[in-house]
Every structure is written in structure tokens, then in C-alpha cells.
Amino acid sequence: MIDHKFKKKFGQNFISDTNLLRAIVTDAGVNKDDEVLEIGAGAGTLTKELALSAKKVVSYEIDKDLQDILLSERPENVKYYFEDALAKKTSEIEKDFLEGYKVVANLPYYITTPLIFKFLEESDRVESITIMVQKEVAERLVAPVGGKDYGILTVMANFYGKAEIKRIVKRTMFFPQPNVDSAIVRIDIDREKYKEIDKQKFSSFVRGAFAMRRKTLSNNLSASLGMSKEKLKEFLPEDQLSKRAEQFDCETFVKFYKNIFQKK
Ligand code: SAH
Q1: Which of 27, 80, 129, 234 is most buried by its number of CB atoms within 10 A?
Q2: Domain limits at 209?
Q3: Which among 63, 104, 115 is the best mutation to test ligand 1's pocket, defined by most ligand atoms within 8 Å of the CB?
Q4: What is the 8-class DSSP label of residue 144?
Q5: pLDDT for 27-47, tens place per residue?
Q6: Nearest 5°: phi and psi at 62?
């Protein structure tokens, strides 16, 4: 292993297994025409594999102690930034890309969900997100309607496109070893799907619907929209309002959203 002091606060769990790194590149569907955004370069192991398959890789690493290692072995088509990718504006990040691009990342678990939302909500150009997540998060992304894993993340993944679990990765594949198993998930983004709908407004509508899992849609929506339950009935059927958010698929949420916001 490299001479590096691993930092827990940055969620550093590195991968060195070449077969796994190659498999992640394949899972991401990266090819010679692609521009790729990597977040969390670590020791650059995935970066190098991506560089072999992609046209260009732009990679962010928050830990400046990794700068020497990364720059000394930088492939020609890789550009490194030693910055916090979450804090940087998406529009700034995108200046490095010609048009569409793919996000690929093995990141600390506590920023995977915010990162997925950041790119889904703020970008019009990201084509897909292939990301290492805790197995539990992967299951939430692809959960069937009504189950215990079904929630905001599932609805939003379906709103933007389609999520698929590509592979399960055992904890023993990382150094240092984390306490949980992981999965590679790919979200393919379809910008045409609900393009007539305001992304951020829809997202907060869905968050509001799921705010209190045990409460009915009527309770949650009336609180989050600041609308009386009586008024809500003008927009949505009563039998639906008495159900919980987890009982509705993305398409139905879109219908509800349109009823409320486009007929008001
Ligand atoms: N992708 C590498 C490293 C995984 S560990 C591999 O697979 O081996 C996750 C890496 O993300 C760490 O190097 C950590 O320092 C970096 N990181 C954590 N938060 C970050 C952020 N907000 N922006 C950029 N990099 C970050």
C-alpha cells in the first residue's frame, strides 16, 4: 500500500484490486468518447483505470496530502483538483466538459446521497452517475413501491431516470476495511422524462410527502404545503390522501404534483 496516513474524517477506504477497478469502469459504461468526472480520487487507482477507457477524466480530491502521489503518476488525460467537490458549484465543475459527461465515484458514504442529489438536481448535462454506495442505499435506490426501502431516494431516482445495482462489493475489497458491504449503482439519466416539471419544486414536494413516514399523505402534504386538509381535497382524491407516501410510484407523484401546482 502507498505511504499515506488514512483519514477517517474524509472517509478514506481505498480500492487497489485491478479486476474490481476495471469492473467499475465497465459498470459505468465509459468509452473513448466520454468525459468523466471522478470525485474522491484517493490514490488514483480508479482514476487511472478510467483514464485508460475515457477521453478525459477530471478528478476531485479534498485531501491535499494526496497531491504528491496523484500528480507524480498523473496520466495525460487526467486533470486533478484538490478541492471539496460538494462545495463547488456544479456550473463551475462543468466548465471542464464540452457537453455531456459521466460521474463515477467511490466516495465516503456520508456524502453519497447529497452528491447524487447535487448532480441530479443541479445539472442538465450529467448522463449517468455510477457510484459506490452502502448496500442499504443501493437497495433504497431500486426499491419496489410500498416496501420498507422505498422512499424519497427511490422516487427521485425514478424521476430522473433509472437506477440499477451493478454489483455487490464486499467490505474486504477496501483498505482500510469499512464495517459494511457496498454496491455499485448506476443511475442513467433521462432528461426528457419529466422535463416539463420543475426539478427542485418536485423534489421538495416529494420530501414533504415523506416527511413523517407513518403519517398519511393528507397530514404530510397539508403541513409541507401549508394548505388545509379540506383544500387538499380539491386537488387529490380522498382515498389517496388517506394513504401513505410509500404507496405511490413516481408517475403518481408527478400526477399529484401536476394536480396541485398546475391547476391551482
Ligand atoms: N476512489 C478512491 C478513493 C476512495 S476513498 C478509491 O476507490 O480507491 C474516498 C476519497 O474521497 C478519499 O480520498 C477522500 O479524501 C475523498 N473525499 C472525501 N470527501 C470529498 C469531497 N467532498 N470532495 C472530494 N473528495 C473527497
Answers
A1: 129
A2: 199-263
A3: 63
A4: P
A5: 999 999 999 999 999 999 999
A6: -80, -25
